[in-house]
Amino acid sequence: MSGGEVIVILVVALIVFGPKRLRELARAIGKLMHDLNRSMRHVKAQIEAETEETGKDVKDKGDKLSGEKNMTENKSVLKDKD
């Protein structure tokens, strides 16, 4: 949108809603945007925390499986020596 289109939209909004109602409407839209941004930050933080937690769980399970695999390999080596 160009600057001219924005000005036309603002003039039409001013004519339709009037100056007092337009201020109230702008204030309400501002509050809505603030709440939306705060909610989005909260959701993003939750997703990051869950992702980090899941990554740690996967790493822990991988480490555990590696340890079990090494133990199994060590047992098979010992059996081969006997």
In words, what does this structure look like?
The protein is an all-alpha fold and 82 residues long. The chain has one domain (3-81). The chain has helices at residues 3-17, 19-81. The longest helix is centred in the middle third of the chain and has 63 residues, at 19-81. The chain is rod-shaped.
What are the salient characteristics of this protein?
single chain, 82 residues, mainly alpha
Write the layout of secondary structure elements.
Layout: H1 3-17, H2 19-81
Helix pairs in contact: 1-2
How is this structure best summarized?
The chain is an all-alpha fold. It is about 95% helix and about 0% strand.
Our measurement of the CA-to-CA distance between the termini, rounded to an integer number of angstroms, reads 81 Å
Number of distinct beta strands: 0
Overall average residue pLDDT? 81
Count structural domains. Answer: 1
Q: What's the number of helices?
A: 2
